Amino acid sequence: MTSRTGEEHSKFIDVNDIRSARDRIAPFIKRTHLERSESLSSHIGTNIFVKYELFQRTGSFKVRGAFNKMLSMTEDERSRGVVAVSGGNHAQAVAYAANTLGVSAVILMPENTPQVYVDATRGYGAAVDLRPSIAEAFAAVETYQDKGMAFVHPFDDPLVMAGQGTLGLEILEDVPDATDVIVSIGGGGLAAGVAVAVKASNPGVRVFGVETEGADAMSQALAAGHPIQLPAITSIAKTLGAPSVSEATLAMVKENFESVTVVSDREAVEAMTFILERLKVITEPAASCTLAAAEKLRSNFGSDGSVVLILCGGNTGVDDLCRYFRDFS
Prior knowledge:
It is a single chain. This protein has 329 residues and is α/β, with parallel strands linked by helices. It has 15 helices and ten strands. The strands form two sheets. The protein has a six-stranded mixed beta sheet, with helices on both faces. A four-stranded parallel beta sheet has the order 5-4-3-6. Strand 7 (180-184), helix 10 and strand 8 form a beta-alpha-beta unit. Helix 1 (15-25) crosses helix 3, helix 1 (15-25) packs across helix 9 and helix 13 (265-279) crosses helix 14. The longest helix is centred in the middle third of the chain and has 17 residues, at 158-174. The termini are far apart. Residues 1-10 have low confidence and may be disordered.
């Protein structure tokens, strides 16, 4: 895959969009902690830094994009409310941002969404409309748009991508000599935004993506040369469960990424266990899979490298955690 250099603009978003987003959303989000992990560094054989985005408001990076989208809307648009589709973190982010800004929100969610996500979304004040599948949830968006509500897409929106990309600016400010970044891919909005941000700061940084088996829409799209529709999301990493990526996110991954690694649910849970024991934090499989990918990619990293793992979310319920350990122990 080829990489852009310096401040060269992407046809979708550029670093100036991301910098504007950072200014816009700064009053509403946390700048999350990033530090070197001695345990993970010894484990992988290079310098491993951890971006603790799981401590972001609502427990994931998603509020960055949600706030940037809604703060960019007109007062008239906000007065008519917003609708979103999500099986987890985007739902909570849109609900929280809407509540904070005084905007009504409806979240379309698949019926197999973990109850912890449904309860949290309602707790932030949004109405939840459960549909049989994520594909049917997306199909129902038009019904709400016909009522005048604005769609806050989970990834295929330049404003959402730019908001997520603010995380990448923080990484290079905190680790200016970073050599590599490993980021999870669901629909690709976080991945695309982070890649644009870090490569604008340092074109030499290599960006690696990771998905889990059964939620690997980006890997399949790369193989096919175009977005494909997954028939179902079978991975436990439900927050990576986009049924397809978009033309925009696919193009940006092709342009900016070294590769996309696919790991198994078992490998994600094993990495989650290691992170819990060593870093004392509970991640989602969608976040712990970055460590599983680092284990597979370790031959790419020199002993003097500086590799950043993005722990993008931590919304794992106790019931789900116990089930993961039971099923994969």
